[in-house]
Fold this protein.
Amino acid sequence: MSADVIQLENVWKIFGKNSDQAMKAVVEEGLDKAAVLERFSCVVGIANVSFTVPRGEIFCIMGLSGSGKSTLIRHLNRLIEPTAGKIKVLGRDMSALSHNDLRDVRAKHIGMVFQHMALLPHRTVLDNVAFPLEVQGVPKAKRWETSQHALSLVNLDGFEDRLPKELSGGMQQRVGLARALASDPEVLLMDEPFSALDPLIRRELQNQFVTLTKTLQKTTIFITHDLDEAIRIGDRIAIMKDGHLIQVGTPEQIVMHPADDYVADFVKDISNLKLVCAHSIMRDINSETVPAGVNLADAPRVDENTNLDHLIDIAVTSELPIIITDAAGADIGIVSKNILLQGIKGEQ
Amino acid sequence: MNANSRTSALIEQRQSVHRFAERQGDYYSRQFEKIQSSNRITFSFNPHAALLGPLWASARNVWGFFWMSIIATLFALVLLGRGLWGELGADDLARAERLSSKSQEMAIKAQTALESGASNVEVLQRNADNLQRAADNAMLAAEAAVGGASQLIFWGALALIATMVIQGFMANIVYEMKYCRWRGGRSETSGFSQMNLLLGVVMLAVMVPLTLYRFTVATPVAWLIEFPTDTSIFTAAATWLDAGFDSIALKGAGFFNGITSGIRMLLDGLEVVLVDTPWPVTAMVILVMAWRLAGPRVALFTLAALAYLAFLGFWEKSMATVALLGAAATLCVLIGVPLGILCAKSPSTYAVARPVLDFMQTMPAFVYLIPIIAFFGTGKPPGILATLIFGMPPVVRLTALGIKQVPSTIVEAALAFGCTRRKLLLDVEIPLALPSIMTGVNQTILMCLSMVVIASLIGAEGLGTDVLQALQYAAKGQGLLAGIAILLCAMIIDRIVQGRFKRED
């Protein structure tokens, strides 16, 4: 089995009655979204999307409403069938699965969390979490035990016998997360899980979520419309617009090198202090003219992966420029206050 | 700046009024400005609308105005027409002639009687006089009616003028309101339509002469009064249907008998439980059930209700009624809930089922009692079937509604965790739809109870029979007591079912 848990190859989704004809026309004539709507009255949901996600990565898909991100995530567990393209999850070709196998994969290997929680209102918290296990036919004692464990992972001990409506929004979403974790799936699909929560609780849950998935080593697809959130929790971010993937990259790549104006517009207001590291802004040691009487040997030395925020802290306390070292401790560059300020402004 | 923007807004409005009116845009933009400049009613007179109200309205697509105007105009014209050409007093005149000829007959008879010396001369003479007096009265009334013609002409002319003046003043106000609606949502029609004008002319051409003719001529031609149809059409259709029913009843006898005996078995079972069990046992079970399921207050009410039924001698009949109702309601739920689920899952099934359900609910019960008798005979099972037809629609509808109202996000979540269709239905959809389903069941039970009286018409014995008898013999007391007994049965069942449900909540 390859290291890539999720592989998408040229996935298309076209909604509408004549989607097959529309798909054909798109391939043969290269129609765009508006033309497809005009000629076939079909809506292009996903347009030629390909990406892979390695094991243990948190992959954020960011886009505004209507960009197709929720449609895309539903392809991964085949809640929506693709019009064309190949989707592999854990090495299985999702489109080729029989109904029984599909149910099995959904129940055992893919957990999903929804924006509106989608808990069963007539069941207790414990029974909600146990639902995926119940579907698999796990006996009651065993599934309660496992669910209890999942609930303690999200710090909800003692709420087992409450009904969902007795819990706050944040707690309900933690129940949703526990439900997704209950059958210990390799893959987690998160469909804007924190969007409906208020900011403070959202922040708390984001942190809790990152810690949890990193310790549990879950491969996660995380949908969000909030770039801040994507940057905070994503190992990599994919930006979607009108069904297309516009750019895929690490938060730093996205912020530092936006692929087009659309992405640039998004990242405009994102603070780069925590994202950009010394490596990206440092100059060659010899290129920088050092004022007379300054001994670079006394200058503070930091690792090349130190972020700007930390560099500022150092620069404030020191008159001297900062020397940047690589992992082996060798001097590889220099950052003066001027360079630092330029770096903060995003100029190079 | 401000004045500038105001004038540009004004110009824009003028342009849009031009687009709206198509013809005479200048006139209407002036009038609309005038109307819009004041909050009070503005006097803006539209001569076209005043003279030719209905035609103006039809061409301008103001149909509400068209109907008001045409009714008022017709009324005025009928008054005028009657005054000008109406054969006023024709009825009275004819009556006077009839009476006076009869009176003359009487007088001749009296004359002959007088000549032959019979004893009834006086009576005959008096009759003749009376008749003559009545004839004179009729004559006077006829003359008065003819004299009233000038009055009719006066009022008619007044009404016509008033109509014209009012529509002249109203037209622009109404048209301006239409313009405002048109600006908001473009679904409102606009412009000047010659097609509609033609339609207005045709309607006037048909309505005015025919109406005038009908009301001015004393005896209009027969086809105008009553639709000229042939009674044989109706007879043939009814006969054809009769034959159809008969042949179906004959061919499907086995099928119908099967249904009847099935229902009878269910009913017999329920009757054994409710009627044949000694009354203290039944009463105790009902009371304990009310108490456990719905609480002490309902139990107390149930006790009072049961006491009423028992002391007034309705016990056995009540239990028979409840057995009847129980059988009907059980069947309703057994058929209705799955049907409702099917309707929710398959839109095409619902498209077929909906008109059928409407039909079942709207068709007066007395109408389908007839084919039920034809197919199933009389007695309790057909009574239950009739109840079924009336009582099933709510449970089907509300089940379908409940299942459809299950949030799609929850269904999606269940599917995302690998739920099978069966588990989805049993563990997600039905539990979530339960409040709606239970409302449907409750409705069905109450509707079934209201059918009990009607079902008793075809021999479904019970409390309904008492009401029916009371109706036949105008026994007010008996009817009221039996009616209250039915009401109490309904309330006991309703409270217990609802109480159980509220507790679950």
Chain A is about 40% helix and 20% strand. The mean pLDDT of chain A is 86. The radius of gyration of chain A is 24 Å. The longest helix of chain A spans residues 199-216.
